[in-house]
Amino acid sequence: MIAIFAAWGLAWLTPCSAHEVRPSYLEVREERPGEFDVLFKTPMRGQLRLALTATFSGSAEDLTPMTRRAAVDAAVQTWRFRALVPLRGQTVRIDGLQNTMTDALVRMVFLDGTNWVRRLTPQEPAAMIPLQQTGWSVAGVYLRLGVEHILFGIDHLLFVLALLILTRGTWLLVKTVTAFTVAHSITLALATLGYVHVPAAPVEAVIALSIVFVAGEIVHLQQGREGLAARAPWLVAFTFGLLHGFGFAGALREVGLPEGHVPLALLFFNIGVEIGQLLFIAATVCLSFWFLRFHRSRIRWASVATSYAIGSLAMFWVIERIAAFDVAHRFWGGNT
Fold it and tell me: Which domain holds residue 222?
Protein backbone atom coordinates (compact mmCIF):
# COMPACT_ATOMS: atom_id res chain seq x y z
CA MET A 1 0.00 0.00 0.00
CA ILE A 2 1.18 3.51 -0.76
CA ALA A 3 1.06 5.56 2.40
CA ILE A 4 2.52 9.02 2.01
CA PHE A 5 3.48 10.94 5.10
CA ALA A 6 4.84 13.79 3.01
CA ALA A 7 1.42 14.30 1.47
CA TRP A 8 0.00 15.34 4.81
CA GLY A 9 2.45 18.22 4.80
CA LEU A 10 1.51 18.98 1.19
CA ALA A 11 -2.17 19.24 2.05
CA TRP A 12 -1.60 21.73 4.86
CA LEU A 13 1.33 23.72 3.50
CA THR A 14 -0.17 24.49 0.12
CA PRO A 15 -2.51 27.49 -0.15
CA CYS A 16 -6.13 26.65 0.47
CA SER A 17 -7.29 27.20 -3.09
CA ALA A 18 -6.47 25.48 -6.34
CA HIS A 19 -5.27 26.93 -9.64
CA GLU A 20 -3.69 30.02 -8.06
CA VAL A 21 -0.94 30.19 -10.67
CA ARG A 22 -2.84 31.80 -13.52
CA PRO A 23 -1.06 33.34 -16.50
CA SER A 24 -1.97 36.67 -18.03
CA TYR A 25 -3.31 36.47 -21.56
CA LEU A 26 -2.70 38.88 -24.44
CA GLU A 27 -4.57 38.34 -27.71
CA VAL A 28 -3.89 40.59 -30.69
CA ARG A 29 -6.13 39.94 -33.69
CA GLU A 30 -5.80 41.67 -37.07
CA GLU A 31 -9.30 42.63 -38.26
CA ARG A 32 -8.28 44.88 -41.17
CA PRO A 33 -4.89 45.35 -42.84
CA GLY A 34 -2.68 46.93 -40.19
CA GLU A 35 -5.55 47.29 -37.66
CA PHE A 36 -5.58 45.10 -34.57
CA ASP A 37 -8.07 44.37 -31.79
CA VAL A 38 -6.39 43.74 -28.44
CA LEU A 39 -7.67 41.77 -25.44
CA PHE A 40 -5.44 41.80 -22.38
CA LYS A 41 -6.52 39.73 -19.38
CA THR A 42 -4.60 39.94 -16.09
CA PRO A 43 -5.25 38.00 -12.85
CA MET A 44 -6.93 39.70 -9.90
CA ARG A 45 -7.12 38.87 -6.23
CA GLY A 46 -10.05 40.67 -4.72
CA GLN A 47 -9.94 44.21 -6.09
CA LEU A 48 -6.20 44.14 -6.78
CA ARG A 49 -4.97 43.77 -10.37
CA LEU A 50 -1.45 42.93 -11.44
CA ALA A 51 0.25 46.10 -12.74
CA LEU A 52 1.02 44.83 -16.24
CA THR A 53 1.11 46.71 -19.55
CA ALA A 54 1.43 45.31 -23.06
CA THR A 55 3.70 47.30 -25.41
CA PHE A 56 5.15 46.92 -28.93
CA SER A 57 8.48 48.24 -30.14
CA GLY A 58 7.12 49.86 -33.32
CA SER A 59 5.05 53.01 -33.77
CA ALA A 60 1.26 52.73 -33.50
CA GLU A 61 -1.80 54.90 -33.03
CA ASP A 62 -4.83 54.05 -30.93
CA LEU A 63 -8.12 53.89 -32.84
CA THR A 64 -10.35 53.40 -29.80
CA PRO A 65 -9.96 54.24 -26.12
CA MET A 66 -9.09 51.40 -23.78
CA THR A 67 -12.09 49.85 -22.02
CA ARG A 68 -11.81 47.97 -18.74
CA ARG A 69 -14.11 45.42 -17.16
CA ALA A 70 -13.90 42.83 -14.39
CA ALA A 71 -14.34 39.15 -15.17
CA VAL A 72 -14.10 36.18 -12.80
CA ASP A 73 -10.74 36.60 -10.98
CA ALA A 74 -9.37 38.74 -13.83
CA ALA A 75 -9.33 42.26 -15.23
CA VAL A 76 -9.96 42.55 -18.97
CA GLN A 77 -8.75 45.46 -21.11
CA THR A 78 -9.72 45.89 -24.76
CA TRP A 79 -8.76 48.45 -27.41
CA ARG A 80 -7.94 48.77 -31.11
CA PHE A 81 -4.81 50.24 -32.68
CA ARG A 82 -3.22 50.73 -36.10
CA ALA A 83 0.37 49.57 -36.55
CA LEU A 84 2.34 52.21 -38.44
CA VAL A 85 5.03 49.60 -39.17
CA PRO A 86 4.36 45.86 -39.62
CA LEU A 87 4.01 43.95 -36.36
CA ARG A 88 6.02 41.04 -37.73
CA GLY A 89 9.58 41.60 -36.65
CA GLN A 90 8.60 43.87 -33.74
CA THR A 91 9.14 43.03 -30.08
CA VAL A 92 6.15 42.55 -27.80
CA ARG A 93 6.76 43.17 -24.11
CA ILE A 94 4.71 42.81 -20.93
CA ASP A 95 6.00 45.61 -18.72
CA GLY A 96 5.84 44.72 -15.03
CA LEU A 97 5.95 40.97 -15.64
CA GLN A 98 9.50 40.85 -14.29
CA ASN A 99 8.14 41.93 -10.89
CA THR A 100 5.63 39.08 -10.62
CA MET A 101 5.62 35.29 -10.17
CA THR A 102 3.26 34.62 -13.05
CA ASP A 103 3.65 34.16 -16.81
CA ALA A 104 1.87 35.67 -19.80
CA LEU A 105 0.62 33.86 -22.87
CA VAL A 106 0.73 35.98 -26.05
CA ARG A 107 -1.38 35.00 -29.03
CA MET A 108 -1.37 36.94 -32.30
CA VAL A 109 -3.74 36.19 -35.18
CA PHE A 110 -3.04 37.81 -38.54
CA LEU A 111 -5.43 38.54 -41.38
CA ASP A 112 -3.87 35.92 -43.65
CA GLY A 113 -4.81 33.16 -41.18
CA THR A 114 -1.35 32.69 -39.69
CA ASN A 115 -0.82 33.05 -35.97
CA TRP A 116 1.89 33.17 -33.34
CA VAL A 117 1.81 31.92 -29.74
CA ARG A 118 4.52 32.58 -27.18
CA ARG A 119 4.82 32.28 -23.42
CA LEU A 120 6.55 35.17 -21.65
CA THR A 121 8.01 34.79 -18.17
CA PRO A 122 9.39 37.12 -15.48
CA GLN A 123 12.86 36.13 -16.68
CA GLU A 124 11.95 36.76 -20.34
CA PRO A 125 9.14 39.35 -20.44
CA ALA A 126 9.66 40.19 -24.14
CA ALA A 127 9.93 38.33 -27.44
CA MET A 128 10.29 39.15 -31.12
CA ILE A 129 7.29 38.39 -33.35
CA PRO A 130 8.63 36.10 -36.08
CA LEU A 131 7.54 36.06 -39.70
CA GLN A 132 5.89 32.67 -39.16
CA GLN A 133 5.46 30.25 -36.25
CA THR A 134 6.22 26.57 -36.62
CA GLY A 135 4.12 23.75 -35.22
CA TRP A 136 6.99 22.69 -32.95
CA SER A 137 7.00 26.03 -31.14
CA VAL A 138 3.24 25.72 -30.54
CA ALA A 139 3.76 22.18 -29.24
CA GLY A 140 6.43 23.36 -26.82
CA VAL A 141 4.27 26.16 -25.41
CA TYR A 142 1.23 23.95 -24.78
CA LEU A 143 3.31 21.03 -23.48
CA ARG A 144 4.67 23.31 -20.78
CA LEU A 145 1.21 24.69 -20.06
CA GLY A 146 -0.10 21.16 -19.48
CA VAL A 147 2.75 20.20 -17.15
CA GLU A 148 2.40 23.39 -15.12
CA HIS A 149 -1.36 23.15 -14.89
CA ILE A 150 -1.35 19.68 -13.32
CA LEU A 151 1.61 20.37 -11.02
CA PHE A 152 0.00 23.57 -9.71
CA GLY A 153 -3.52 22.13 -9.73
CA ILE A 154 -3.49 20.97 -6.12
CA ASP A 155 -7.04 19.62 -6.26
CA HIS A 156 -6.21 17.28 -9.16
CA LEU A 157 -3.05 16.11 -7.41
CA LEU A 158 -4.84 15.38 -4.16
CA PHE A 159 -7.42 13.28 -6.02
CA VAL A 160 -4.62 11.25 -7.63
CA LEU A 161 -2.88 10.97 -4.25
CA ALA A 162 -6.00 9.63 -2.54
CA LEU A 163 -6.40 7.03 -5.29
CA LEU A 164 -2.77 5.96 -4.84
CA ILE A 165 -3.32 5.39 -1.13
CA LEU A 166 -6.37 3.22 -1.87
CA THR A 167 -4.83 1.20 -4.70
CA ARG A 168 -3.10 -2.08 -3.81
CA GLY A 169 -0.79 -3.81 -6.26
CA THR A 170 1.15 -2.67 -9.29
CA TRP A 171 -1.31 -3.96 -11.90
CA LEU A 172 -4.28 -2.30 -10.20
CA LEU A 173 -2.27 0.92 -9.96
CA VAL A 174 -1.58 0.83 -13.72
CA LYS A 175 -5.29 0.26 -14.43
CA THR A 176 -6.30 3.12 -12.16
CA VAL A 177 -3.85 5.64 -13.60
CA THR A 178 -4.78 4.60 -17.15
CA ALA A 179 -8.50 4.93 -16.43
CA PHE A 180 -8.04 8.44 -15.04
CA THR A 181 -5.92 9.42 -18.05
CA VAL A 182 -8.41 8.08 -20.61
CA ALA A 183 -11.39 9.68 -18.87
CA HIS A 184 -10.02 13.21 -18.51
CA SER A 185 -8.57 13.07 -22.03
CA ILE A 186 -12.05 12.38 -23.43
CA THR A 187 -13.80 15.27 -21.71
CA LEU A 188 -10.84 17.62 -22.20
CA ALA A 189 -11.08 17.13 -25.96
CA LEU A 190 -14.89 17.27 -26.12
CA ALA A 191 -15.15 20.44 -24.02
CA THR A 192 -12.21 22.24 -25.63
CA LEU A 193 -13.49 21.56 -29.15
CA GLY A 194 -16.96 22.78 -28.20
CA TYR A 195 -18.89 19.53 -28.42
CA VAL A 196 -19.88 19.60 -24.73
CA HIS A 197 -20.61 22.68 -22.63
CA VAL A 198 -20.60 22.40 -18.83
CA PRO A 199 -20.64 25.38 -16.40
CA ALA A 200 -17.25 25.76 -14.75
CA ALA A 201 -18.38 26.63 -11.20
CA PRO A 202 -20.44 23.45 -10.53
CA VAL A 203 -17.70 21.32 -12.10
CA GLU A 204 -15.05 22.77 -9.78
CA ALA A 205 -17.29 22.14 -6.76
CA VAL A 206 -17.93 18.52 -7.76
CA ILE A 207 -14.20 17.98 -8.39
CA ALA A 208 -13.58 18.99 -4.77
CA LEU A 209 -16.42 16.71 -3.68
CA SER A 210 -14.79 13.79 -5.54
CA ILE A 211 -11.69 14.26 -3.38
CA VAL A 212 -13.82 14.20 -0.22
CA PHE A 213 -15.42 10.95 -1.39
CA VAL A 214 -12.11 9.16 -2.02
CA ALA A 215 -10.63 10.45 1.25
CA GLY A 216 -13.67 9.03 3.06
CA GLU A 217 -13.12 5.69 1.34
CA ILE A 218 -9.59 5.59 2.79
CA VAL A 219 -10.97 6.04 6.31
CA HIS A 220 -13.56 3.31 5.72
CA LEU A 221 -10.83 0.95 4.51
CA GLN A 222 -8.77 1.59 7.64
CA GLN A 223 -11.85 0.72 9.69
CA GLY A 224 -12.20 -2.59 7.89
CA ARG A 225 -15.03 -1.55 5.55
CA GLU A 226 -13.93 -1.95 1.95
CA GLY A 227 -15.93 0.36 -0.29
CA LEU A 228 -16.26 0.68 -4.05
CA ALA A 229 -13.15 2.85 -4.41
CA ALA A 230 -11.00 0.22 -2.66
CA ARG A 231 -12.47 -2.69 -4.64
CA ALA A 232 -12.42 -0.98 -8.04
CA PRO A 233 -10.31 2.21 -7.89
CA TRP A 234 -10.03 2.22 -11.69
CA LEU A 235 -13.82 2.62 -11.96
CA VAL A 236 -13.83 5.56 -9.55
CA ALA A 237 -10.83 7.05 -11.36
CA PHE A 238 -12.61 6.85 -14.71
CA THR A 239 -15.92 8.25 -13.41
CA PHE A 240 -14.44 11.25 -11.64
CA GLY A 241 -11.74 11.60 -14.29
CA LEU A 242 -14.47 12.73 -16.67
CA LEU A 243 -15.17 15.65 -14.34
CA HIS A 244 -11.50 16.50 -13.92
CA GLY A 245 -11.23 16.65 -17.72
CA PHE A 246 -13.79 19.47 -17.73
CA GLY A 247 -11.59 21.25 -15.18
CA PHE A 248 -8.55 20.92 -17.45
CA ALA A 249 -10.63 22.20 -20.37
CA GLY A 250 -11.63 25.28 -18.39
CA ALA A 251 -7.98 26.15 -17.83
CA LEU A 252 -7.19 25.61 -21.50
CA ARG A 253 -10.10 27.81 -22.60
CA GLU A 254 -8.71 30.65 -20.47
CA VAL A 255 -5.56 30.85 -22.59
CA GLY A 256 -7.18 29.84 -25.89
CA LEU A 257 -6.04 27.63 -28.74
CA PRO A 258 -4.05 28.91 -31.73
CA GLU A 259 -5.99 28.87 -34.98
CA GLY A 260 -4.44 26.49 -37.46
CA HIS A 261 -2.79 24.48 -34.69
CA VAL A 262 -5.79 23.47 -32.56
CA PRO A 263 -5.28 19.65 -32.71
CA LEU A 264 -1.54 20.03 -32.07
CA ALA A 265 -2.01 22.39 -29.12
CA LEU A 266 -4.72 20.18 -27.60
CA LEU A 267 -2.59 17.04 -28.02
CA PHE A 268 0.52 18.50 -26.42
CA PHE A 269 -1.42 20.15 -23.59
CA ASN A 270 -2.83 16.72 -22.77
CA ILE A 271 0.62 15.13 -23.05
CA GLY A 272 1.93 17.79 -20.68
CA VAL A 273 -0.81 16.96 -18.18
CA GLU A 274 0.17 13.28 -18.34
CA ILE A 275 3.87 14.06 -17.91
CA GLY A 276 3.12 16.18 -14.85
CA GLN A 277 0.85 13.49 -13.44
CA LEU A 278 3.49 10.77 -13.92
CA LEU A 279 6.15 12.98 -12.30
CA PHE A 280 3.88 13.43 -9.28
CA ILE A 281 3.15 9.68 -9.06
CA ALA A 282 6.86 8.83 -9.33
CA ALA A 283 7.75 11.30 -6.57
CA THR A 284 4.93 9.97 -4.40
CA VAL A 285 6.03 6.34 -4.82
CA CYS A 286 9.63 7.25 -3.96
CA LEU A 287 8.51 9.07 -0.80
CA SER A 288 6.36 6.07 0.09
CA PHE A 289 9.27 3.65 -0.14
CA TRP A 290 11.40 5.99 1.94
CA PHE A 291 8.69 6.21 4.60
CA LEU A 292 8.20 2.44 4.65
CA ARG A 293 11.92 1.95 5.14
CA PHE A 294 12.37 4.31 8.09
CA HIS A 295 8.90 4.63 9.64
CA ARG A 296 7.13 1.32 9.02
CA SER A 297 5.60 1.30 12.51
CA ARG A 298 3.77 4.56 11.79
CA ILE A 299 2.32 3.62 8.41
CA ARG A 300 -1.26 3.23 9.64
CA TRP A 301 -1.15 6.57 11.45
CA ALA A 302 0.32 8.27 8.37
CA SER A 303 -2.37 6.86 6.09
CA VAL A 304 -5.23 7.96 8.35
CA ALA A 305 -3.68 11.39 8.97
CA THR A 306 -3.17 11.90 5.24
CA SER A 307 -6.78 10.97 4.43
CA TYR A 308 -8.18 13.36 7.05
CA ALA A 309 -5.90 16.16 5.82
CA ILE A 310 -6.94 15.61 2.20
CA GLY A 311 -10.63 15.34 3.10
CA SER A 312 -10.60 18.46 5.28
CA LEU A 313 -8.90 20.58 2.63
CA ALA A 314 -11.24 19.26 -0.09
CA MET A 315 -14.31 19.96 2.04
CA PHE A 316 -13.10 23.52 2.50
CA TRP A 317 -12.92 23.81 -1.30
CA VAL A 318 -16.45 22.41 -1.67
CA ILE A 319 -17.87 25.06 0.67
CA GLU A 320 -15.73 27.82 -0.82
CA ARG A 321 -16.71 27.01 -4.42
CA ILE A 322 -20.40 26.57 -3.70
CA ALA A 323 -20.44 29.87 -1.81
CA ALA A 324 -18.64 31.66 -4.66
CA PHE A 325 -21.04 30.16 -7.19
CA ASP A 326 -24.04 31.30 -5.16
CA VAL A 327 -22.68 34.84 -4.78
CA ALA A 328 -21.97 35.11 -8.50
CA HIS A 329 -25.41 33.76 -9.36
CA ARG A 330 -27.12 36.34 -7.14
CA PHE A 331 -25.01 39.15 -8.57
CA TRP A 332 -25.63 38.36 -12.20
CA GLY A 333 -29.23 37.38 -11.57
CA GLY A 334 -29.88 40.73 -9.95
CA ASN A 335 -28.39 42.64 -12.87
CA THR A 336 -30.19 41.02 -15.78
Answer: 5-19+153-333
